[in-house]
Every structure is written in C-alpha cells, then in structure tokens.
Design goal:
Strand content of chain B: 5-15%
Number of helices of chain A: 4
Radius of gyration of chain B: 21 Å
Structural class of chain B: alpha+beta
Largest sheet of chain A: none
Structural class of chain A: mainly alpha
Shape of chain A: globular
Strand order of the largest sheet of chain B: 1-4-5-8
Strand content of chain A: under 5%
Largest interface: A-B, 20 and 17 residues
Order of helices and strands of chain A: HHHH
Number of strands of chain A: 0
Shape of chain B: globular
Number of strands of chain B: 10
Low-confidence stretches of chain B: none
Oligomer: heterodimer
Low-confidence stretches of chain A: none
Largest sheet of chain B: 4 strands, mixed
Radius of gyration of chain A: 12 Å
Helix content of chain B: 40-55%
Mean pLDDT of chain B: 94
Helix content of chain A: 40-55%
Order of helices and strands of chain B: HHHHHHEEEEEEEEHEEHHHHH
Chain lengths: 92, 387
Amino acid sequence: MATSSIDRLSVEATLRDYLVENSNVSIPGPLGPDENLLDGGILDSLGIAEITEFMEKNFSIVIDEDEVSSRNYGTLHKLTDFCHSKLVDIAA
Amino acid sequence: MDFSFSKDQDEFKDKVTHFAKSELNDPNLDEGDLKSRDEACILSRELWRKCADFGILGLPFDRAYGGAETDIITTVLAMEALGYGCRDNGLLFSMNGQMWTVQMPIANFGTDAQKEKYLKGLISGELIGAHGITEARAGSDVMALGTSAVRDGDHYVLNGAKVFCTNGPVADVFVIFATVDPSAGSLGLTGFVVERETPGLIISPNKRKMGLRTSPMSELTITEMRIPVSARIGKEGQGGRIFNSSMEWERSAILANLVGAMQHQLEICIRHANSREQFRKPIGKFQSVSNRIVDMRLRLETSRLLLYKVAWLKMTKGSCPMEAALAKLYLSESWVASSQSTVLIHGGYGFMADMEIERDFRDSIGSLLYSGTSDIQRTIAARALGL
C-alpha cells in the first residue's frame, strides 16, 4: 500500500482482514471495531509482534516499541486510528 | 563464511574451562560434594561466590555495575566452557536464571537507582536474585497470568501467587510480573523488583524436583504486597517486552551450557568405550556402541552450529525468535538424547548414582520444559512459518 493512501476505511478493512485471517483463535461473527483484541487472545503476545511487523511492511510505517501499548492495540478502532495517524503524519 | 573465533575469544574460553574444571568440582566444600548437595538439594554459595569473583555473573553487563561488557558470542562461549568444565548443572541453571531474568531486566529496563541498588550486588555475588512469572494456571500461556498490581497513590498493591520460582528459597531480590490491566492481555504485564523481606511476600521452602536439585525452587504467595512505584521496572505494560528480551538471552546462554555438557558426555563415552572390554574387545568396536557415539557427536556438532548462529543473529540483527525457538527445541532434546546415550554406554554402572552419570539424565529432562517447552518452541516456529 502506498503511503499516500490514507483512507481510514481502507486501513480498517486491511487490518480487519489481517486479524480474521491470522488470529490464533477463531473469531465468531464479524469483528466489531470496539471488540477487545487483547483479553480474548485475538492478539496474543506473538500476534502483537506479528501485526506490528505486518503494519510496518504493509503501510511502510515505523512503529516504536513504546507505541506497542493497549492504548494503540486494544481494539480494531484504536489500531486503525493509530495506523491511520501514522500515515497522515507521513503524508503531511 | 568463517567458522573461527578470535584469538581473544579462544583464550577466554580456555580460561573459563580451566576455571570451571579446577574450581567448580571441588569435592571438599563445607557444603559437601556434588552428590551430597544433589541429594540434599543445596545450592553451593561457595561456588556461586567463586563464579562471581571470576566475573561470570557480570559477563555482558555494564562495567559501571561490575560487568565486563562482553559481546553475546563471547558470553555464549564462556557459558559453553562452564557447561563443559562444571558438573553442577543446577548451579549453572541458577546462575543463568539470575543473569537473564533478574539482572538483564534491571540492566535493560531499570532505573539508575535500581541498577545501583541491585545490579551491583547481583553481579558481585552479594545478592541472589529470583524471577517470578509462572503461575499455576499460566505456564506456557504465561501472558495470561492472574497476579494483579493495582496503583494506589505512590504505591502498587500486588496480589497473586507464583510457582516454579528458581532461586526463590535463597533469593534476596525478586523480579515479579503482574498485570496492571487484565483487559490489556500481554500489554498489561508489568515488572517489579521486590526485596525478600517485603511484607506480603511469602516464600515457600524448596520444592524437591526430579533434576537440577542443586538449583532451589519455591512458590510465592503475594498478599496485599505494597511496593513503591519506584520498584516498577520500565513502564506499565512493558512486562511482555521485558520478559521476551530475557527469554532470548536465557535461551542462548542456557543452551550454551548444554553444548558444553554434551561435549563432556561425548568424551567420557569415548574413553569408556575404548577401555571397557566385553567379548575380548573394547565395546567401542561394536557398531551398536560406536554408532551411538557417532550420533552423539552429530547432535553435538549440529547443536553447536545452531547455537552459534542464534548468537550471531542476535548480535548482528537483534531479535531472531524462530531461530532461537528451533535452537532451544533441538538442543534441549539433543541433551536428553545425549544423556540417555551416556547412561546406556556405561551400562548398569551408568544407572548407579555413585557413577554420577544418571544425574545428567535427570537434569536434562528439565530442559524440555524451562525457557519455553518443546511444544511452545514448535508453536513459535510454526507461526513464524505462516502455519
């Protein structure tokens, strides 16, 4: 994905597809934007490292270790906001 | 490609080997010889002190705190030399436990005050450290631990319980993990450094084990344990990162001990196979015996290559989770196989406690479990392969 593409909906769809496809637990039904990704194991410790690497490669962004927090990774909504804000910063 | 080490590294490895062989197998310690310490489950404080004085506990750590700032490859070589020269696997296991899961978190994530207060003493051997993360219901799934840390002004209040706490019965300092937010999963994990006498921390007596008996282990009960915010290691939620960093170091260094131990086993098996005669010839002339020894050598060689590759990757590229998982898996299973072969090659005598060969076999089983079980290593590798 080019860094100029900063459509939030597209970022959310990409992340949702990744989570549904790669989560180590089966996700019943559609993944809601405010569903907790961390307490049910959708993102376990390995999954957090994997999605971080995915976001860096797919969106050409750099994620600092200090940014890997529940504030940014807690839900699909938060993850999308975090990723989208990085893309906006790059485009600015 | 170059498989050689520098002259300094080779010399240092020889020096550690000489130290381990000459100083760490003393049968005349006040604490008893290794056989009696193993039976009584005693960690030798005298040998611990010797290792500290030699500089083992400070190898890769900052000189400002008494360390030597050796690189990871030199550290791994030193650990291999210890495993080769020292027969007390429990002592080495305890030292590794302290170095990578107590000292390293404080060194990498702790405050200057924590380093000054604890790291210096741990490296000098004045303090012993233990690590509390595993819980009865959070073993392989360790990030799902239940011990809680609730912020209360300038303090945290911790409640929970830990199992399999290496060095617990004798430790002065504990690195304990708790969650500040259960809904944050592994991103709620937070590390704390806690002193032994802290009210609310109850340490069980030593728990007897199948092997590694000279490495004491306890359970911890944590009830309304109130500790200052200054006891936190790193930031809230950084515990997972701290723990994973510790595990990468621990896996490399503990595995190095195993490579050294396998080298020792190979050598005693060759000696025995050449000297023990049955049917009027050395048993090493029977292919069933020589093939077993060749297999030991093959496992040693491949184990060593995997170990050095992980050390090199960690030094040059940083993290290498899949390679570290594969090395942990292969080396631990190789050590069990090597230990079993050593018993078999020595026959009935290998089975007898007086020969001190069966102890390695008992000690080796733990390697399939600690620092992540074989099953977990396969899980990590499978996920890295996209499965």
